[in-house]
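Saturday, quiet lab. Running sequence design on the structure tokens for the scaffold JK sent over.
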């Protein structure tokens, strides 16, 4: 479709037309542009009635039927454009416009249009991570539609599957997609077919990895290939870019990092061309996770920080929580444990507040996986208990796998083996080293103290009975360097700009000058050169 030509045609047809006729033509064209992912062109199509996204549409000259249609298109676009540019409050604006539209359609008894509005409201709540509210609107829309087997029903079923997929209720997602499959098969809409195959492929990707199912991986690749074909036929570049991101994620999870980066590069390039910084930030999250698995935590930090700055502007809380979890994992790998814990706690709070219990639970699991040595055992037990509560409704096998792994990790920490009398026979003394055995016991207690102190050497030194934490630091540096990763990051001690450096008392040196002795006290080494522990 030639966007410029269609917009010029709309302008020509609008000359001399009544407000109702202009509204009808504008809304029809905007709807077609939306289906193509051309949100700027769609906004331009209804600009006579909605010139500024920061102000309500101008519908005073329209009757209720056409007023409702303009509000529907404006609300739908507000949600989509807001997601693309991550504008603050965009989803709330979209929901308000759509709610006004729904009230008018209900008054007019326009059932089909009212159902379409409820489908759009479900998308807005899904973007925010409010999955329960999204289910309510989509469920109501499907019930109102009844046994109708139109493309609208297929759209609603696919959206219901998207919500369940993001909530990791994968069995429910598969049920919706299976119900939609025959409707999609009969449809001639390439955009609809592409959306179905893209989302169905994502379910197979989520099922494939934890169960190591190569047949599921192959099925996901087949679905993504079909999605790409139909989006190309439809001319929807935006959704084609989303398939590229999904392919990048799939290849990252199976360890084919080079191919993952290739698809992520392509996806990000397309999204930047479309000025869709919101979805580009999601691509960056995927890339950061890929870099983590490659051991490139420094590069991952640079990328995920920029993604979070973008996502914090918008209202898509579930996506923000995912990015915050990624950032927390990155900092844990870099040894910045205190900041890592702050980010993971924030990720849990953001997800739980939005209604994304699965995302909140995954953030808690990341605390246990990444910060075991820096977290007191009681706190770890509480974190696990909270994760179980949040994830009790999960149908994601990967989540189940992680829960089991974290449980085993906790058992290793919490279960104290019963002391047994060692059997002393002649064979057991072969290669025995008293010093090595003492070092093992010493390491065990230091490791436990660091864990219970949250990685703080100062607090761990107190637990172990040291008078000065420097003694423990020296012990770790000289005998147990493998425990350096369990302590919190070393921070340089701050000092005042105008304070005089303290004198380090060292052995005086005596110089002879002109027959008289002069005592010289060497200056202390600068504070910046001495690592210090911040408790």
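Result came back. Writing it out in full:
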């Amino acid at each position: 479709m030639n966007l410029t030509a269609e917009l010029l045609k709309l302008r020509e047809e609008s000359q001399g037309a009544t407000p109702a006729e202009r509204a009808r033509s504008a809304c029809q064209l905007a709807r077609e542009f939306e289906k193509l992912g051309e949100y700027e062109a769609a906004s331009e199509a209804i600009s006579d009635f909605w010139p500024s996204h920061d102000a309500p549409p101008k519908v005073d000259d329209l009757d209720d039927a056409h007023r409702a249609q303009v509000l529907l298109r404006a609300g739908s676009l507000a949600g989509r454009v807001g997601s693309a540019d991550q504008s603050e409050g965009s989803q709330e604006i979209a929901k308000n416009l759509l709610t006004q539209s729904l009230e008018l359609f209900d008054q007019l008894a326009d059932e089909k249009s009212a159902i379409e509005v409820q489908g759009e409201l479900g998308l807005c709540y899904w973007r925010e991570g409010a999955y329960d509210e999204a289910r309510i609107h989509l469920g109501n829309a499907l019930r109102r539609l009844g046994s109708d087997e139109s493309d609208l029903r297929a759209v609603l079923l696919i959206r219901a599957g998207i919500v369940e997929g993001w909530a990791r209720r994968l069995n429910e997602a598969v049920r919706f997609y299976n119900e939609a499959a025959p409707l999609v098969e009969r449809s001639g809409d390439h955009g609809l077919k592409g959306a179905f195959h893209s989302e169905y492929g994502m379910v197979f990707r989520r099922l494939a990895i934890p169960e190591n199912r190569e047949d599921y991986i192959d099925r996901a690749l087949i679905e993504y290939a079909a999605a790409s074909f139909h989006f190309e036929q439809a001319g929807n570049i935006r959704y084609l870019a989303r398939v590229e991101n999904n392919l990048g994620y799939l290849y990252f999870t199976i360890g084919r990092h080079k191919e993952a980066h290739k698809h992520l590069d392509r996806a990000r390039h397309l999204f930047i061309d479309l000025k869709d910084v919101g979805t580009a930030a999601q691509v960056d999250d995927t890339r950061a996770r890929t870099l983590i698995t490659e051991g490139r935590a420094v590069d991952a930090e640079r990328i995920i920080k920029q993604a979070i700055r973008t996502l914090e502007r918008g209202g898509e809380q579930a996506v923000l929580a995912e990015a915050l979890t990624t950032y927390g994992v990155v900092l844990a790998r870099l040894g910045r444990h205190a900041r890592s814990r702050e980010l993971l706690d924030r990720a849990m709070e953001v997800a739980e507040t939005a209604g994304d219990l699965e995302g909140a639970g995954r953030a808690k699991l990341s605390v246990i996986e990444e910060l075991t040595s820096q977290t007191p055992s009681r706190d770890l037990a509480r974190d696990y208990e909270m994760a179980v509560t949040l994830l009790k409704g999960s149908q994601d096998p990967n989540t189940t796998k992680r829960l089991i792994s974290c449980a085993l990790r906790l058992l290793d920490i919490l279960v104290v083996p019963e002391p047994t009398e060692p059997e002393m026979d002649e064979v057991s003394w072969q290669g025995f080293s008293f010093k090595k055995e003492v070092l093992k016991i010493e390491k065990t207690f230091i490791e436990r103290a660091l864990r219970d102190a949250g990685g703080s050497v100062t607090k761990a030194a107190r637990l172990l009975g040291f008078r000065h934490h420097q003694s423990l630091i020296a012990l770790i540096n000289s005998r147990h360097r493998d425990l350096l990763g369990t302590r919190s990051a070393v921070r340089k001690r701050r000092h005042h700009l105008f304070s005089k450096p303290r004198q380090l008392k060292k052995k005086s040196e005596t110089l002879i000058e002109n027959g008289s002795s002069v005592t010289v006290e060497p200056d202390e080494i600068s504070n910046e050169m001495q690592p210090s522990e911040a408790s």
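Notes for JK: The radius of gyration is 30 Å. Strands lie at 509-513, 516-520. Ask whether to fix the surface positions before the next round.
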